[in-house]
């Protein structure tokens, strides 16, 4: 039996220290980084620290694992909780040995004073003071793991093919479920022919599902169910060729980001408009969940959601349960890049398990469900204009961005926000997505405020408040588009002034960390050679600094050969972890920039598979070089979303530098280049 | 009943012969290391070796595997050992979420079995049917080249 010393830390008789950080592994390595922090604060051996996945029945509510905030937000309280545990155990050792606590040291999990030694397992049993009231230990623990490239703790299982993903979960008596989604967003079930007796159909309004004894049986049952359903369909979607108009048509919420007084100064005006399409999460694994209804009316759910507590509230609301009767537990899924279908499929599983006679139900979406029904990252469009002086420097800046909102997570805006809810007999509709507030870094307007020292800047967001297309958080939210637009335009201004794009930026930039990151990336890439493009941002205005330089090959197709990035995340917990996040972010951003676009006609989403929604392949992947700019004395900030915007701008600027074609509408495909020439 | 060899062991599968090999492996055989990614043989997550060739197990019916040799990620190396590709992936930390890795390592193992000295171009070509969304492509290529050195030794 483990000794529970704090909400976050318990210690077993075998000396294993279980740490529950309230954050979840999304493929980004956060549990490894948090384990490093915990091990150092405990003075423990990393091998004795076991990270426990977030769950609502035990462990702290740390909210979402999102926004590149996990290390920044969860790191300090975890460090403090672990330091308190260490202090309490050291105090117990001191009492036992009749020495002062200051004479007790701990290293690799061993407490020592002179020749006397004790382990966490020995001491934890005797600690009876509330550890929360013990002052945290300071000073004595050394940094053994923080700052080093500890290998990922979860990777050995995944490389060996051992069961670890939620897709591999097998609960006793488990059934497999499939959901028959409507054929299009506006569709409603018109008629369902009576199902044969051996087909276990679950229906609630337009929500349809089937159960089977195996994955294959469930797939076959889904095929049979499909033939029984007739749907009423309607054209509800905008024209995909006119997204600029659609986004500007409104109604809008106006978001004042920077308000400038008075009239802009006189001078030459330069202006441009940029856009990006809707983007899909396109994880390699479809969303998956399991659920079990117990005889006492409680519900257990297994999920790869980013926020088990929010999901619990949303499920309780839709299902009419007390939140205390719902337990939600995290199990690892495939890479998560934002609000994907993980929460939705958890409701699917709960709805199917409600009709399964108490047997647990495991539900996995299809590839088509994943690409057409998970929320998208919103299409966006931005108008930028600047008044420049005779040297071409900015005297006044104006930026307007049009977008759908970037957050419709469970419970946001007072709605459950779960897909199947909208299809039920008594529906829970999901409204247009909202945006996070300024203190959380905005959504549509994320990184819309320029980092440059412009004498005057007017920046406004315009969030669409009605839309038939479901959007929510996709890695970096509005920052990808806003940085692409701002940094493309900075290049256009530099070129119009006949000035070097790097020097032009530096001439408008006083932040010393920003200048250092820009110079480091430029130096590492050999700036000055023809054909290079640069892009830069500080994520959210207060997160990681990142500059990217792209080297491309272009005729009609664009191929990115090399990306060189410099990044400053403050104190680095795991250098290779940061590199891996920056590399991965850069490669994913290359894919978004060159290839990706959600396709639809007026009725349905038509990008349904990997042919119609292509992503970057091995043969198209650039070499990525990452320079870490170390600032060990400044607080750690996240690295997962720093690279996206700078990379998009660097690629577009490299295209302009290489073939003198400015592409302002993503993705930069062959057609886009031909269009920009025409 | 369908007879086939899975990871060196003769097996008799009871699933309907039309069942996708992926479901037989993950379901009745409990070998969940092979992944479902798309069901359309378009992502490589479900690759297994069939008589040494990487195939998409999601669209390969069990009947096609009758009398043949199937190797999954669990059987790339004997027992608890790791195949040089698996070891190199760990050494290079060539993973983020890890979901695509089973199929990628199956493709890489097949490449090294037929060409122990591939150059970078050959590695990239051998992996081009495998998709990765987290963006570890270049780490994977480095790992496979490193593993090639080990295999050749």
TrEMBL record, chain A:
<dbReference type="InterPro" id="IPR008274">
    <property type="entry name" value="AldOxase/xan_DH_MoCoBD1"/>
</dbReference>
<dbReference type="InterPro" id="IPR000674">
    <property type="entry name" value="Ald_Oxase/Xan_DH_a/b"/>
</dbReference>
<protein>
    <submittedName>
        <fullName>Xanthine dehydrogenase family protein molybdopterin-binding subunit</fullName>
    </submittedName>
</protein>
<dbReference type="GO" id="GO:0016491">
    <property type="term" value="F:oxidoreductase activity"/>
</dbReference>
<dbReference type="InterPro" id="IPR046867">
    <property type="entry name" value="AldOxase/xan_DH_MoCoBD2"/>
</dbReference>
<dbReference type="InterPro" id="IPR012368">
    <property type="entry name" value="OxRdtase_Mopterin-bd_su_IorB"/>
</dbReference>
<dbReference type="InterPro" id="IPR052516">
    <property type="entry name" value="N-heterocyclic_Hydroxylase"/>
</dbReference>
<dbReference type="InterPro" id="IPR037165">
    <property type="entry name" value="AldOxase/xan_DH_Mopterin-bd_sf"/>
</dbReference>
<dbReference type="Pfam" id="PF20256">
    <property type="entry name" value="MoCoBD_2"/>
</dbReference>
<feature type="domain" description="Aldehyde oxidase/xanthine dehydrogenase a/b hammerhead">
    <location>
        <begin position="160"/>
        <end position="235"/>
    </location>
</feature>
<dbReference type="Pfam" id="PF02738">
    <property type="entry name" value="MoCoBD_1"/>
</dbReference>
TrEMBL record, chain B:
<feature type="domain" description="2Fe-2S ferredoxin-type">
    <location>
        <begin position="1"/>
        <end position="76"/>
    </location>
</feature>
<dbReference type="GO" id="GO:0046872">
    <property type="term" value="F:metal ion binding"/>
</dbReference>
<keyword id="KW-0001">2Fe-2S</keyword>
<dbReference type="InterPro" id="IPR036010">
    <property type="entry name" value="2Fe-2S_ferredoxin-like_sf"/>
</dbReference>
<dbReference type="InterPro" id="IPR051452">
    <property type="entry name" value="Diverse_Oxidoreductases"/>
</dbReference>
<keyword id="KW-0479">Metal-binding</keyword>
<keyword id="KW-0408">Iron</keyword>
<dbReference type="Pfam" id="PF00111">
    <property type="entry name" value="Fer2"/>
</dbReference>
<dbReference type="InterPro" id="IPR001041">
    <property type="entry name" value="2Fe-2S_ferredoxin-type"/>
</dbReference>
<dbReference type="GO" id="GO:0016491">
    <property type="term" value="F:oxidoreductase activity"/>
</dbReference>
<dbReference type="InterPro" id="IPR002888">
    <property type="entry name" value="2Fe-2S-bd"/>
</dbReference>
<dbReference type="Pfam" id="PF01799">
    <property type="entry name" value="Fer2_2"/>
</dbReference>
<protein>
    <submittedName>
        <fullName>(2Fe-2S)-binding protein</fullName>
    </submittedName>
</protein>
<dbReference type="InterPro" id="IPR036884">
    <property type="entry name" value="2Fe-2S-bd_dom_sf"/>
</dbReference>
<dbReference type="GO" id="GO:0051537">
    <property type="term" value="F:2 iron, 2 sulfur cluster binding"/>
</dbReference>
<keyword id="KW-0411">Iron-sulfur</keyword>
<dbReference type="InterPro" id="IPR012675">
    <property type="entry name" value="Beta-grasp_dom_sf"/>
</dbReference>
């Amino acid at each position: 039996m483990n000794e529970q010393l704090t909400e976050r830390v318990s210690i077993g008789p075998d000396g294993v220290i279980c740490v529950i950080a309230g954050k979840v592994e999304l493929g980004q390595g956060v549990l490894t980084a948090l384990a490093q922090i915990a091990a150092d604060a405990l003075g423990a051996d990393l091998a004795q620290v076991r990270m426990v996945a977030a769950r609502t029945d035990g462990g702290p509510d740390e909210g979402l694992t999102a926004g590149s905030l996990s290390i920044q937000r969860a790191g300090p309280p975890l460090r403090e909780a672990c330091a308190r545990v260490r202090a309490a155990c050291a105090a117990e050792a001191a009492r036992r040995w009749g020495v002062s606590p200051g004479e007790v040291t701990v290293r690799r999990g061993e407490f020592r004073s002179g020749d006397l030694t004790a382990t966490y397992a020995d001491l934890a049993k005797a600690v009876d003071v509330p550890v929360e009231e013990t002052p945290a230990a300071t000073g004595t623990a050394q940094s053994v793991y923080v700052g080093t490239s500890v290998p990922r703790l979860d990777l050995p299982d995944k490389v060996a093919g051992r069961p670890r993903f939620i897709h591999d979960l097998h609960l006793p008596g488990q059934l497999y479920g499939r959901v028959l989604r409507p054929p299009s967003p506006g569709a409603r079930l018109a008629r369902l022919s009576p199902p044969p007796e051996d087909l276990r159909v679950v229906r609630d309004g337009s929500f349809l599902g089937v159960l089977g004894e195996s994955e294959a049986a469930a797939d076959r049952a889904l095929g049979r169910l499909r033939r029984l359903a007739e749907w009423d369909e309607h054209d509800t979607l905008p024209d995909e060729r006119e997204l600029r108009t659609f986004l500007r048509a409104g109604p809008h919420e106006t978001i004042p980001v920077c308000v400038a007084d008075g009239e802009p100064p006189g001078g030459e005006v330069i202006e441009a408009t940029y856009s990006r399409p809707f983007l899909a999460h396109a994880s390699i694994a479809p969303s998956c969940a399991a659920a079990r209804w117990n005889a006492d009316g409680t519900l257990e759910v297994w999920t790869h959601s980013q926020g088990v507590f929010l999901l619990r509230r949303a499920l309780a609301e839709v299902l009419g349960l007390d939140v205390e009767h719902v337990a939600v537990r995290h199990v690892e899924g495939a890479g998560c890049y934002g609000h994907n279908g993980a929460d939705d499929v958890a409701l699917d599983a709960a709805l199917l398990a409600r009709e399964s006679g108490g047997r647990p139900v495991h539900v996995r979406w299809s590839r088509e469900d994943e690409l057409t029904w998970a929320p998208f990252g919103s299409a966006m469009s931005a108008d930028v204009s600047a008044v420049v002086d005779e040297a071409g420097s900015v005297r006044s800046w104006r930026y307007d961005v049009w977008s759908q909102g970037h957050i419709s997570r469970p419970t946001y805006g007072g709605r459950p926000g779960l897909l199947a809810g909208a299809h039920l007999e008594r529906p829970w509709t999901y409204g247009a997505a909202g945006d996070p507030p300024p203190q959380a870094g905005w959504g549509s307007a994320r990184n819309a405020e320029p980092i440059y020292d412009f004498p005057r800047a007017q920046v406004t967001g315009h969030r669409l408040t009605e839309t038939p297309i479901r959007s929510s958080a996709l890695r970096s939210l509005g920052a990808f588009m806003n940085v692409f637009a701002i940094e493309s335009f900075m290049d256009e201004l530099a070129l119009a002034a006949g000035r070097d794009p790097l020097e032009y930026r530096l001439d408008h930039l006083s932040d010393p960390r920003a200048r250092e990151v820009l110079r480091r990336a430029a130096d590492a890439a050999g700036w000055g050679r023809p054909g290079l493009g640069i892009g830069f941002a500080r994520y959210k205005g207060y997160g990681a600094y990142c500059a990217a330089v792209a080297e491309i090959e272009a005729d009609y197709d664009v191929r990115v050969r090399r990306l060189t990035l410099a990044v400053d995340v403050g104190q680095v917990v795991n250098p290779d972890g940061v590199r891996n996040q920056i590399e991965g972010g850069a490669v994913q951003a290359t894919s978004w920039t060159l290839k990706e676009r959600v396709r639809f006609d007026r009725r349905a989403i038509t990008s349904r598979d990997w042919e119609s929604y292509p992503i970057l392949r091995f043969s198209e992947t650039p070499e990525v070089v990452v320079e870490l700019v170390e600032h060990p004395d400044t607080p750690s900030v996240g690295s997962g979303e720093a690279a996206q915007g700078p990379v998009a701008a660097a690629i577009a600027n490299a295209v302009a530098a290489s073939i003198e074609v400015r592409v302002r509408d993503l993705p930069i495909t062959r057609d886009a280049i031909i269009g920009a020439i025409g | 009943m369908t007879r086939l060899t899975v990871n060196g062991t003769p097996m008799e599968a009871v699933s309907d012969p039309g069942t996708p090999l992926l479901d037989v492996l993950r379901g009745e055989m409990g070998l969940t290391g092979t992944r479902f990614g798309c069901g359309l043989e378009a992502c490589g997550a479900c690759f297994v070796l069939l008589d040494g060739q990487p195939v998409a197990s999601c669209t390969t019916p069990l009947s096609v595997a009758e009398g043949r040799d199937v190797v999954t990620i669990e059987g790339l190396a004997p027992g608890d050992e790791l195949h040089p590709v698996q070891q190199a992936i760990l050494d290079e930390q060539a993973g983020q979420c890890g979901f695509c890795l089973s199929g990628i390592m199956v493709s890489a193992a097949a490449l090294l079995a037929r060409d122990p000295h591939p150059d970078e171009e050959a590695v990239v070509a051998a992996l081009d049917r495998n998709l990765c969304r987290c963006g570890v492509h270049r780490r994977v290529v480095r790992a496979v080249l490193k593993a090639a050195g080990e295999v050749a030794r």
